[in-house]
Specification:
The complex is a heterodimer.
Chain A (H helix, E strand, L loop, with lengths): L23 H7 L5 H13 L3 H12 L3 H19 L3 E4 L12 E4 L4 E9 L3 H20 L5 E7 L8 H14 L2 H11 L6 E6 L2 E9 L13 E4 L8 H15 L7 E7 L6 H9 L2 E8 L2 E8 L6 E2 L2 E2 L4 E8 L9 H4 L3 E4 L14 E4 L6 E4 L4 H5 L13 H22 L12 H30 L5
Parallel strand pairs in A: 3-8, 4-7, 8-13, 14-15
Antiparallel strand pairs in A: 1-2, 2-3, 4-6, 5-6, 9-10, 11-12, 13-14, 15-16
Helix pairs in contact in A: 3-4, 8-9, 12-13
Chain B lengths: L3 E4 L5 E4 L15 E6 L6 H14 L1 E7 L3 H14 L6 E5 L2 H10 L7 E4 L5 H12 L2
Parallel strand pairs in B: 2-6, 3-4, 3-6, 4-5
Antiparallel strand pairs in B: 1-2
The chains are: A alpha/beta, B alpha/beta.
Chain lengths: 466, 135
């Protein structure tokens, strides 16, 4: 294998901050600001460990102008580095039994082997457009649809275009008019939530699932201000969790039936994703089911039906052994995240092809009990052979470091002067009190300068200086 | 001698002048900061009259750049302390690039005007303009 470098080798002196229009990789490639030189060193090592035939494509994707593609390329480089450090055998883009595409890696981890497919979840321009359309459609349903007897529950699949609101309105109102609220209430009282009428409305790439909830008798007969009773925001409308669920579901079905477990490695580069939201995306949104038994209000915890491991009809995506989830591991924005945030493997309790212990931290679930068992993995610092805090250097603007340097220089000067107060040339023969006064003035000046430098740093921290 | 006037992207103005007649055509409101060359060849004593005028016009910080920066800084401090001007800040960097970076990005809390008396030193002017364009 040839030893290739990702970054050109030359002494970098540019300490200016990232420029408008500059890519994060471009900044990383030219900056002399710590800890980016160390990050370059680490990425160079990982890059040189790639097979020769993979390096050109990896470099092209990393240096491209599309930040999302660049981060996706980093994620694959990172995963390869983890697995190589763990001693796993790795094949790139293996064939699959049904010939439906090539996952990113086939991994031989000794006691277990599996396919690994990498993906990232973030907000692209298209996704932000989807969110705007989603909000528009949601508002239209809420304000335009006349629903005298029912409140609506909504969830939706990926919208890539705007649906026809008049057609949606006619379809929903026609469906609601056919329903008898007394009959629906009776069915609900007898069989619970599963008895509520549901309807799926499709147009173009839109799929909207509707559930009709009967209003209380005294509220029926006239349209309320709002027709929507609730929105399935945990795993339906395209919030961050929705994007996560959709991205993974696509990958889960992409390769057909496989002969080995499939692990999907997801890098979540969005705010708001944490253990709880991932749990809800996998097992369903936490809900409180409320029902009336006579005059008694009965409440019980439940889960929503749209989830990666479960649907209304039972377990799904059972060919997926687990998800390896990294949350906001982004070296371009914060190099320290590489060492601080290990991805976690969330096992699928209902998988038909489980995967054995791996190098990452793990979360397992009891099928029936729901018990959570967490197991530690190999810490990233140990895996990559670097000391803790190696990439921790903060990233202030260059001038903050300049001020800190001035403070250090002046503090040394004042310490030295206190330890050895010298007499200014020409004052040697003046009275002692005059000399001492001059020496105090000297100390006061240096202290005043230090105070000024510190005040300017404070102004930066409070946003007064930029 | 290179003299110029440059408006930075953040709206601040940088004047580059020589030491000989630094205040010619320099009529701005205070506060401002001044960058001084500190090479061995500089006649430090000859510059003190200029310093006095700069303080009177509203200079709040003198930055010394070059191999003799620390010595020069001490001499300016002595001058200021002699005249009870301890509110004026002085800074130094023997590395010219570091000095230019500090001068552009941090000196004096980034006032709207910067005066660099380095016009006779091509290398310093180049470094300074490079740093100014990075703003």
């Amino acid at each position: 294998m040839n030893v290739q470098r990702l970054f050109a080798s030359y002494e970098r002196t540019d300490r200016s901050v990232i420029r408008p229009g500059e890519t994060h990789f471009g900044f990383l490639d030219r900056t002399a600001i710590e800890p980016f030189p160390r990050l370059r060193q680490l990425l160079d090592r990982w890059f040189s460990d790639l097979p020769d035939e993979q390096q050109a494509e990896m470099r092209t994707r990393l240096i491209g102008k599309d930040e999302r593609q660049s981060l996706a390329a980093f994620w694959e480089l990172y995963l390869h580095a983890c697995m190589r450090a763990a001693g796993y055998g790795i094949d790139f883009h293996p064939h699959t039994p049904e010939g439906k595409g090539h996952p990113d890696f086939l991994v031989d981890a000794g006691s277990t082997s599996f396919y690994l497919e990498a993906t990232i979840v973030g907000s692209s321009d298209a996704e932000r457009g989807n969110a705007r359309r989603e909000a528009k459609v949601q508002a239209a349903i809420d304000s335009q649809i006349r629903s005298p007897n029912f409140l609506l529950g909504l969830s939706a699949e990926i919208p890539s275009s705007e649906p026809s609101i008049p057609r949606l309105k006619a379809s929903i109102e026609g469906w609601l008019n056919e329903l008898n609220p007394d009959q629906v209430q009776a069915a609900f009282d007898q069989a619970g939530w599963g008895a509520l009428p549901r309807r799926e409305w499709k147009e173009g790439s839109w799929t909207i699932e509707l559930t009709a909830y009967p209003k209380r008798p005294e509220q029926r007969g006239h349209p309320s201000d709002s027709s929507i009773g609730f929105i399935s925001s945990g795993a339906g409308w395209l919030n961050d969790v929705g994007r996560f669920r959709v991205a993974v579901a696509k990958k889960a079905k992409h390769y057909g039936k496989l002969d080995r477990p499939l692990v999907i490695a997801v890098l979540c580069d969005v705010l708001g994703m944490d253990g709880d939201t991932i749990d809800q995306a996998l097992f369903g949104r936490h809900q409180v089911a409320v029902s009336l038994r006579g005059q008694e209000v009965v409440m019980r915890p439940s889960r929503g039906h749209q989830a990666l491991w479960r649907s209304a009809s039972g377990q799904v995506n059972r060919g997926v052994a687990g998800l390896l989830i990294g949350i906001r591991i982004n070296p371009f924005r914060n190099p320290a995240t590489i060492l601080e945030r290990a991805p976690r493997l969330w096992h699928n309790p209902w998988t038909t092809m489980p995967v054995g212990p791996l190098c990452w931290p793990t979360r397992r679930f009891g099928k029936d009990t729901g018990d959570v068992i967490d197991e530690p993995g190999v810490p990233p610092t140990e895996l990559f052979g670097v000391p803790a805090g190696w990439l921790d250097e903060p990233y202030p603007p260059a001038w903050i470091r300049s001020l800190e340097k001035q403070i250090a220089q002046h503090e040394k000067k004042v310490d030295d002067f206190r330890a050895n107060p010298t007499v200014r040339p020409g004052m040697e023969k003046l009275p002692k009190e005059v000399i001492e006064k001059q020496q105090q003035e000297r100390i006061r000046h240096l202290e005043k300068e230090i105070e000024t430098f510190k005040k300017n740093i404070e102004k930066y921290k409070t946003g007064e200086l930029k | 001698m290179r003299e110029c006037e440059l408006t930075l992207r953040d709206g601040r103005t940088l004047f580059v002048r020589g030491i000989v007649s630094p205040l010619h055509g320099f009529d701005v409101n205070p506060p401002f900061v001044t960058l001084l060359p500190a090479c061995d060849t500089i006649e430090q004593e000859a510059m003190f009259e200029t310093l006095r005028q700069l303080v009177e016009r509203g200079c709040v910080e003198f930055c010394c750049a070059g191999s003799a920066a620390e010595t020069f800084h001490d001499a300016i401090d002595s001058f200021l302390e002699r005249h009870a001007l301890v509110d004026i800040v002085t800074s130094w960097d023997t590395d010219a690039a570091g000095a230019c970076e500090y001068f552009i990005h941090a000196a004096g809390g980034k006032p709207p005007v910067m005066l660099a008396l380095v016009g006779a030193y091509d290398g310093l002017v180049d470094l300074l303009l490079t740093e100014a364009r990075s703003v």
